[in-house]
Amino acid sequence: MSTQASLPHLLQRLHRGAAGWLQSWWRLTQFAVLMFSVALTPASYGRERRPVLARHLVSDTVPNLAWYGVLSALVSLVLIRIVVVTSQSYGLSRYALEMVVRVLVLELIPLTAAAFVALRTTLPAGLEFAQGRSAGRQVSMLELHREFFPRVAAGVFAVWMLAAVSCVLTLILTYLSLYGFTPWALAGYTRVVGQVFNPAVTMILALKIVFFSFAVGLIPMASSFYFGENYRNKVSHGLSDMVRLFAVMLLIEVASLMGNYY
Q1: Please, which residues have CB within 8 angstroms of residue 24's CB and are 6 or more apart in sequence?
Q2: Residue 136 DSSP class
Q3: What is the C-alpha to C-alpha distance for residues 25 and 204, in angstroms, rounded to an integer?
Q4: Is the pTM higher than 0.85?
Q5: Quick one: CA dihedral 157, 158, 163, 166, positive or negative?
Q6: From the CB of residue 95, how many other CB atoms can be counted at a distance below 10 Å?
Q7: Distance CA 5, CA 2 (A)
Q8: Which of 209, 219, 210 is nearest to 242 (CA)?
Q9: Helix axis angle, 109-117 to 50-89, nearest 10°
Q10: What are the mean pLDDT values of the chain's consecutive 10-residue runs (262 residues total)?
Q11: 74/72 Cα distance (integer angstroms)
């Protein structure tokens, strides 16, 4: 009897969980459409709103760019050395450059750049902004343009900048690690890199960075847009945002791997 009585309760919990999960994704989709419509509105870039947007772009990008640039350079040097030594030990030195470019530039740097911006900026900012809102208060169009859109745009722009600068820095460090300070190997280096970055791979890399940036910018702020309840609920929403964000990033990474290697 206890088993039969607990079965409807279990089904009810599963139904509530599935309904809440679908509702959260539906609200995220609505918020994304709303942000894209605001981004396409010329009033979002008016004279009175440009300083706020510029301040968020600079404050969310420059500190992250400095820290991530140093960390990515150190990690890149270590990984480059590991790949070069390993390839030499197996007699595969001619494939070392291609392996470094594929592992670092195509896969690790975009993923770590998005994760760095999310953990350092967008997730804490989304939770802090949600805690400052009154419970159940509707968001006005002025707040949408002055508060939400600059934060979303700053998160998107920060991922673009970190990924672009780190990719260029890694390519430079790879050349210096393999050939040293000589210009004579530049022709062969650019030929191998150009063979890796064919049009399909380049398009997949660009799309991956773009989708990473949208996920990092939109998901944390969507929670603070819809959920204006008590502090404990906001903390739980912050944790669910982290899980949802990294789940989306994992799906994007898997899709890019399938596009590159299948």
Answers
A1: 240, 244
A2: T
A3: 25
A4: yes
A5: positive
A6: 14
A7: 5
A8: 219
A9: 140
A10: 59 71 80 89 83 89 88 90 85 82 89 92 81 59 79 93 92 89 87 89 94 93 67 57 88 91 79
A11: 5
